[in-house]
Specification:
The chain is α/β, with parallel strands linked by helices. It has 16 helices and 17 strands. Strands 7-6-5-4-1-13-12-9-8 form a nine-stranded parallel β-sheet. The chain has a two-stranded antiparallel sheet with strand order 2-3. Helix 1 packs across helix 2. The longest helix is centred in the C-terminal third of the chain and has 27 residues. The protein is globular and about 65 Å long.
């Protein structure tokens, strides 16, 4: 299952390329190096530039999003389909890697509407416009192009889409006032209608490829055979100085330093719940998590850029675990997976370990700089190197 890292605004394509190359995830029997699967939205100029840059690199897989949802939320001007198609053709002409294009969908209603779901009339008008945009993209020769079926759309549009294409997108409602139970039921209903997983020939295969827009809840990814999904959740780590770690189930946990410290103490790591984490261990813990007050390294050795690299690695690991789950537990091998021999030998674990050793050497040089910084009383207090007032008394 492909997990696309959905992009918004950001730095230059070259800088983003450097950060993506540093993403690493490894464990027993596997080593992953470099984030290669990205979603870029037409709604953001920076994302468009990165899409034009990355699509020329054969190792990538790119998903081009129309920006319809961004426009629906009011974060950008309404998307003009003619401009979007012209830009997609530009990407098509220069691409050297697999690129998927989402047709400009039309979402019924407005995000500010107090009543939800939208009326049947509004929903039908939106579906008709979206279908027209989808047909226009196909006529322009842009592909593979995906139309999106939304929660609360009439199921007849899903049937039409199934008759028209073997590859399309589905999107649950992003409104917070729509109960999760209703979203769960809708996703189940979609897969009950589509029935994309076929085991009649003795081996599992997908008769239809579904892309889940923003559908990276691990329960959905392991319950339903999506071909691909995407999410912007990985960006939160950099924005909030949070640490993302992927567990063996494929669940990505993104937490603050306070939460990780409490969990470390609860498990007897670097301290305990009764006495907490000592100042010396807290300093070490902060260094391990790449948290340095008032410092942000653009090379990604610490600070928010380090958090983004770390988060990329966590979602690379999620992709690995979920794909492995479908292959080993459900017997489904997707066509984007490398052959078994390559899965075992590429990338070489030794190469990844060498990369980690290089990072350790960088951290050693960085620690010398940190030692100078922590002489500042305010920084020392922030790092927890000073005794608490209660202890001083």
């Amino acid at each position: 299952m492909i997990v696309y890292l959905a992009e918004e605004t950001g730095d230059s394509p070259e800088h983003h390329e450097e950060l993506a190359a540093k993403a690493i995830a490894f464990g027993h029997g596997y080593a992953l190096k470099g984030a290669n699967h990205f979603l870029f939205s037409f709604a953001y100029e920076e994302a468009k530039r990165r899409a034009e840059y990355f699509c020329k690199q054969p190792r990538r897989r790119i998903f081009i999003d129309s920006g319809a949802y961004t426009a629906w939320t009011g974060k950008c001007e309404p998307i003009v389909n003619r401009k979007y198609l012209d830009w997609c053709k530009k990407v098509m002409d220069s691409k050297q890697c697999p690129v998927v294009f989402a047709a400009l969908d039309v979402i019924a209603g407005k995000i500010t509407d107090s009543k939800w779901p939208p009326s049947r009339e509004d929903s039908e008008r939106a579906c008709e416009k979206g279908w027209a945009n989808y047909q226009a993209m196909k006529q322009e020769g842009i592909g593979p192009c995906l139309m999106t079926f939304h929660q609360f759309d009439d199921p007849k549009w899903l049937t039409m889409l199934m008759d028209e294409s073997d590859y399309f997108a589905v999107s649950h409602s992003k409104r917070r006032d729509v109960p999760d139970a209703l979203k769960d039921k809708w996703i189940k209903d979609v897969f009950d209608i589509v029935k994309p997983l076929d085991k009649s020939g003795g081996t599992a295969r997908l008769t239809k490829k579904l892309h889940g827009l923003g559908l990276t809840r691990i329960e959905w990814m392991k319950e339903y055979p999506f071909y691909s999904v995407d999410s912007t959740a990985w960006l939160q780590a950099g924005k909030g100085n949070l640490t993302s770690i992927c567990g063996p189930s494929g669940q990505v946990h993104t937490r603050s330093l306070k939460v990780w410290t409490r969990r470390a103490a609860a498990n007897g790591i670097l301290g305990d719940l009764k006495n907490g984490v000592s100042p010396k261990n807290m300093k070490y813990f902060r260094e391990c998590l790449g948290i340095v007050p008032g410092v942000d390294d653009r090379n990604g050795n610490w600070g928010s850029y380090f958090k983004l690299i770390q988060s990329m690695g966590a979602y690379m690991e999620q992709e690995y675990f979920v794909t492995k789950y479908w292959r080993e537990e459900k017997g489904l091998t997707l066509d984007h997976e490398p052959p078994e021999r390559q899965r075992e030998n590429e990338p070489p674990i030794a190469e990844v370990l060498a990369e980690l050793e290089a990072l350790e050497r960088q951290n050693a040089r960085w620690n010398a700089k940190v030692e100078k910084q922590i002489r500042d009383p305010e920084v020392a207090e922030w790092l927890g190197l000073k005794e608490k007032k209660a202890q001083r008394k």
